Every structure is written in structure tokens, then in C-alpha cells.
Amino acid sequence: MTKGQVLAVSLMGMGRLLAASTCEGLANFSLPDTTITIAVSVPAGPYTAPDGTAFSSLPAFCRVAGSIQPTADSKIQFEVWMPASGWNGKFAGADNGGFGGSINYGKMGDALSHDYAAASTDTGHTAGSLGVLDASWALGHPEKVIDYGYRAIHETAQTGQAIVAAFYGQGPNHSYFNGCSNGGRQALMEAQRYPADYDGIIAGDSANFMTHLFSTGVWDNQALAVSYLPPSKLPAIEAAALAACDGLDGVVDGVIDDPRKCNFDPSILLCQGAETDACLTSPEIGTLKALYAGPVNSAGVQVFPGYPVGGQTGANGWSLWVTGPTQDTGALFGFGYYYFVSMVYGNLAWNPNAFNIDSDVAAADAATGATLNATDPDLTAFRERGGKLILFHGWSDPAIAAESTINYYESVVAKLGRIRGPSFIRLFLAPGMQHCEYGPGPDSFGQNGFDQGDPQHDLESALELWVEQGVAPERIVATRYNTDLDPTTGVLRTRPLCAYPAVARWEGLGSTDDAANFACATPASKVRRNPRLPTSLFVTAIP
Which residues are catalytic, by number? Predict the structure, then answer.
């Protein structure tokens, strides 16, 4: 009997396979390919997780840990945390960043604090010294790549839900998954491959086109090798872009609302005399234009969208993801390099300087495209079982261009037909937000937590209202605090995020820092898609 069948037995009221009257009794709970190593009651109060994550206070809970071995070369570590009392009847799956390799205790603790039962996995391996950048575990282990790609998240969902059913005597009423970056890719894998695992899914700033995203990281580094853009010049680039395009949406607020509409020409920054951080040399202008344009193969097809105009500065900006503090240190290049070394070629001597946009992208697609890419637009099964999907992306994301998520959304529309009314999918774009959070725009809207309680301001709560009461979200109010993500420092600005393709427009009265003075409106003319995008994945225009 599979884990899914075990859960089904519990849900149909045919009796639990094990009547676990105590948390400790789950140590003897039997599931296929699964070994439970820990089943212990944890008292309420401060708690430090095995990885050192410290919680000032958690409610009393049952902690179950173990491993799943679907293949001989698999070892998927997992944990399930369940409230000892006051369970809200819901199950939350926690996501993993980068190349995974560790259990997301922080998100489990957040879910537990809001009365969810929660589960997380290490994605089938333990990260090495490079943390989320580490991909050495993949060398010679194709089954572990599959575990990371999609199997570990699915196995953990089924295992976690079966353990919840055994502990409480009933399965969860609703199950939710909320992930960003690689977690957004995991979220879309669940919707595409395993539509029965979750009722509601949030996929943010998704790395779902991973083979092309990581190829872009290596391609970027080649562009930077021609003429490096030092971080000291990023403020001048951002300031010039804002001067050209900030007011296009009718509000001057330090944020470019839709970078696609900005016709900023970096040539205006050309040094007229001695080079300073306030200007760019001609080769640097060429590099910047290349990064804005993104990689195109020899057939003229866009491999991945280029970076947005604006939002270059800050701790989560280009100096982290694109340029790095010095050449060859951008985080996206690091992911790309270790991906090709460990997953594509299995060759520690692979030279990124010899990267070819045609042959190496083709090799990446052939080696891991079916395992790592979550680009399938056919969400029919997820829609038909009543699943709800929310996509979000920061317009100023320097790690994964927001147009990648727009492209995926439009591919779903092209596959399933123009989506109207309370269907099953919504996309929210956050102007000025960088990768999952931070940046000059409002960047706090409950996108990385569980059930903060207000569906007007909290994406997770809006998803639950949609799943459980059929109220589709059309507007989410995002907040920018005086200090990043710190409510105690006071509110600097609020702004509505509107369900795509609608955008927020100031109504002409009242403060432009107050979301109440903005309405969601569909643009009179919509931005045309790049005709060079591969039509097999994306549509070429918004009808």
C-alpha cells in the first residue's frame, strides 16, 4: 500500500492503521520506504531546532523525524511538527532555497505558531560547506537529482499528511504550500506533477525554468568579463533609470512600476571626461545593455529574459546576484557554475569561460530539463480538483527576471484559455521588490509566511479564503516599512498589488503613500511580448 493509499484509508474513516494515542507511539507507525527515527513531545516554550534555529517561544508540539528511501540511492530526510492542541486542521509544506540540503525549520516554526501541522525535507541530501550553493552531492547520483528536482517534496507531502492523519485520527481539511525562488519552482512542480498533494499553492519569484536560468548566470559572467560593472557604479545606473522612468505611472516614488515600459538608454551615462562612479565607460555601457537584453541564441530566440531596469542597489540587489562584490562572485553565476559542474557534465574541470549559449544550454536541457524545469502549462488536473494557485514576482528581482513568471502565466492561459472570474490562478507583480523581498518598493504582503490573518494584506490568508470560501483575490495591499520587513519601525508606504494584467493607479487625490488612494485598472494598451520568445513555451502577446 502506498503512502497515498494509507492517507486515503484514514480520510475515508476506515480506521487508522495505527491508533497512536501519544506522540511517542508514532515511532512504530509504518509507511512504505519510510523509517521514523524520532517521535517526541516537545513542551511549550523556547526551542532550538537541530540546525541551531532558535525560537523564543513555540506551542507544545509533537516532533516526528525520519527518512524516506524510494530508491537505493535515496535518503530523503524529513520532519513533521504537529500542535499538541489547538490544531487548525490544516497542513503546511515548507520550501527549500537554492540547491536545498537542509530542513526549513524556520518556516515550520512559523506554521506551527499559527496552529498548522507542518512538514519539511532536506530534498534528499545534506548541504556541504557552500550551503545552498553546494551541488557536489549530485556528482554521480542521478536519483538524488530527481529527489531534489521533485520527488522529495512530493514524498514528504504524502508522508507528512499520513503522519498527521495517524496522530489526530483524521487527515488535514486543507493542505497548503508556499515557496519562493527554488521554493517557487517546487510549488509549481507540485501543481504540475502532483495536483492532489495541495489544495492551495503560492509560487513566488519562481526558478521554474532552472536550466535556462542557471545558463543565464554563466552567460552573464561572460558579459561581465568583457567589462565588469563594479558595485560602486550601481547607484548611478539606478538613479539615471529612475530619472528616465519613475514618473511613467503618474507617481514619483523611487520605483519603476513596470520596467518593460521604460526606454532607458544607458548611453546617457557615458563618461565625458575622467572616469568616476557617476559615469560608465563605453565597454561598461555595452555590458549593461547586454544584461538588460538577456541571452539570445544563434537562432535569435531569447533563452531567458534580461534584467529589469531599476532596483540595482541594496543588499539584495545586483551586487549580490549579478555583478557580485568582485568579478566571478555573483550568486547567480555561482549557482550556474556548480550546476554545470555537478549536474550537467559531472566534470570538476569544466571551464565556464568556454560556455556556449547554444551547445551548453542544449546540454543542460537534455541532462536535467525534465527533472528540474517546472514549465508545463497544463494544470488541468490541478484546476479540476479545485486547486488554487497564486504566482507573485518582484519587478526588480535581480536573481530571476519577473518576465519569466509572466511568461509562465501566459503559457497557462494559452493552454487552458483566457482565465476570467474566480478561476484557479492569479499573478501579482510587486513593483520595486527584489528577490522574494527587499528593494525600494513595498515588499511585505505575507508572501513568505503562514496565515497572518488578513486576506487584504496577506497572500497566504487570501489563498486560504479563496480555497475555503471561493473568494478570489484581486488586490493585495503590500507594505513598505521604514526598515526592511520590520513593522516596529513604522510604515513608510502601502500600495496595492493587482491581479495581472491590472495595475495600481493613483486616483489623483490623497497621499500617494496610501494604498486607499489607488485603484486596480487594466492598462488601456498592453505590453507586447518579445516575438523571439520560444512559442512552444510562451505566447507572443497578451490578447
Answer: 181, 397, 435
